[in-house]
Write a structure and sequence with these properties.
By secondary structure, the protein is α+β, with helices and mostly antiparallel strands. It is built from 15 helices and nine strands. The protein starts with 22 loop residues before the first helix and ends with a helix.
Length: 394
């Protein structure tokens, strides 16, 4: 079977690095990043198979998040790279480094915040860094580029699946959610199968069996989408390319150097980040208009959704690995105690709440919320301490 023919990038790991802190978020809009190109692996002919699917891959379980990191882990395992999703790939995607909250205090618009920054801000160059950590090139095709080379894209997807390598896709339209059709779901998903009319896609948030419409997920964990609808609505797709020689020390350095960008990105799409996220979070919890005269409030919307992202993060093992393997990356030893402190505050919130979610009677009490916001402020202040470390290394 043919491999996916690609334009060989021959890029050094340095070329994957975000060039400025603001670019981290603006680059998440696929059209802002230069698309690669791809040629038709079956030009002048047709694929040998009319249908195929990958049956063994990493699936998401209930109560897991950081969808993009899990999708990348699944691809890595098919490429022979085994790493724990929460402890490794979410470092490269930025999920574990990016506190996120609604730009409006109290999250009145019910923006989703529990699945990490990459559910809303796909950053192609950061994803390329994750593929580089697997020792592979990464080919990114924007939605615009897909439309320019539609047939070649379809055939390249089929060729990748025939070689048992899933294709990462950014955004799926017309998703049959429980009780409604979602016109566009932004998170990462994997194309793992095809037939003459459909692509078979694993949507990683569908690990929660109550989220997807009953009967639309088959025995292999896939949902069928008409080929045309997938490529008409997606923001972009990512192919695993050829093996490349990678300086892993440089790749790790790039992952750490992206942190300031994630912490200081300007408000976007209704969200704020870093210390600003904590400030807005605190403002909502102390706004009595959300609580006065009420017997209950939506704790998930106001608080626990954002807290969920903090509970999923754990970059300390990655930092320890950098310290041990690459002592020249001296900033890692400065960052480790700050992240230990940061996530210690996360544990303090758990202790204060008596678990993941505080009971209503406790949450409605201003004294409790004052204690809670004191801890959240300290987490925001730690974000500034982390940024100060980078200032020392400029």
């Amino acid at each position: 079977m043919p491999t996916v023919p690609i334009r060989k990038l021959n890029q050094t790991p340095e070329s994957y690095s975000p060039s400025s802190k603001a670019e981290i978020i603006t680059m998440a809009q696929a059209a802002a990043y230069a698309s690669d190109t791809i040629v038709d692996p079956y030009a002048g002919g047709e694929p040998p198979n009319t249908a195929n699917r990958i049956k063994e891959y990493k699936r998401m379980g209930v109560w897991q998040n950081f969808f993009l990191a899990l999708a990348i882990q699944s691809i890595g395992e098919k490429l022979g790279v085994s790493r724990d999703f929460g402890r490794y790939w979410a470092v490269f995607t930025g999920d574990v480094f990016t506190p996120i909250y609604s730009e409006k205090p109290g999250n009145p618009d019910y923006l989703t915040m529990d699945s990490g920054v990459t559910c809303y801000f796909f950053v192609p160059q950061v994803i390329k860094t994750a593929y580089a950590a697997m020792g592979h090139d990464c080919i990114y095709l924007s939605g615009e580029q897909i439309k320019k080379n539609y047939k070649a894209t379809i055939n390249a997807v089929k060729a990748s699946i025939d070689n048992s390598i899933p294709v990462l896709i950014r955004g799926i339209g017309d998703v049959p959610m429980s009780g409604h059709i979602c016109p566009f779901m932004s998170e990462g998903a994997l194309i793992g199968g095809y037939d003459e009319n459909n692509l078979y896609i694993n949507i990683y948030s569908s690990g929660d069996p109550g989220r997807m419409e009953e009967g639309v997920i088959d025995e292999d964990g896939y949902t069928a989408f008409p080929i045309e609808s997938v490529f008409d609505k997606t923001d972009g797709i990512f192919f695993a390319g050829e093996k490349i020689d990678v300086d892993m020390e440089q790749v790790y350095r790039i992952a750490l150097e992206a942190i300031p960008g994630f912490l200081t990105s300007p408000p976007s799409k209704g969200y704020v980040f870093g210390k600003q996220a904590f400030d807005t979070w605190v403002e909502g919890l102390l706004d009595e208009s959300f609580f006065e005269g009420r017997d209950s409030v939506d704790i998930w919307k106001m608080h626990c959704m954002a807290y969920c992202t903090l509970c999923s993060g754990f970059p300390m093992e990655f930092l320890q690995e950098v310290i041990e393997k690459y002592p020249n990356i001296t900033i890692a030893s400065k960052l480790l105690p700050l992240y230990e402190k940061f996530f210690g505050y996360k544990d303090a919130i758990w202790e204060l709440q008596g678990g993941f979610e505080p009971p209503q009677e406790k949450f409605l009490t201003r004294e409790f919320r004052i204690e809670l916001t004191d801890i959240l402020r300290k987490m925001g202040e730690t974000c500034d301490e982390i940024l100060a470390v980078f200032k020392e290394y400029e």
